[in-house]
From TrEMBL:
Transmembrane segments: none
Protein name: S-protein homolog
Signal peptide coordinates: 1-28
Places the protein is found: Secreted
Organism: Tripterygium wilfordii (Thunder God vine)
Pfam family, one: Self-incomp_S1
GO biological process terms on file: rejection of self pollen
UniProt keyword Secreted, yes or no: yes
Keywords: Secreted, Self-incompatibility, Signal
Sequence similarity: Belongs to the plant self-incompatibility (S1) protein family.
Main location: secreted
Cross-referenced InterPro entries: Self-incomp_S1
Amino acid sequence: MILNHNVVNLKMFLILSMFLLLLAPSTADALSASLAKSLQDWFPRKGVIIRNDATHNVILKCDAKEFDMKIKLLPPGTEERFEFLEIIFPLRWCYVQIDDKIHGLFWAYATKLKCNTACSWSIRDTGIFMYNDDMRSWTPSPLFN
């Protein structure tokens, strides 16, 4: 009987606590900011840089909430960037259309790519290339159709 009474008290305490948090938005905002700061302390920020080094416009769409997820027309010499927290093996993919024959999906970020702080990509007339930090060179990457 005492156990049931303690469970009821705990439930009431939790309900009252949530209600008070809802009434105090500044407290909730402070908790959200505190949680965000804690996540940034525990998980590193990673980035993706995609540069159009082709001689013409290319179409780019990335599936990442940090990227506005719209289809973009990327003029030559311009780049798109986004950052995110690396929490539990993140995956970020993008679709690129270089021309009518060269187009497809690629992993813009995956833990297995072993990028240091950012994965750097170069879109060229012949395909997409990823910068290899260890070799300090650009290596071609497959596009998946």
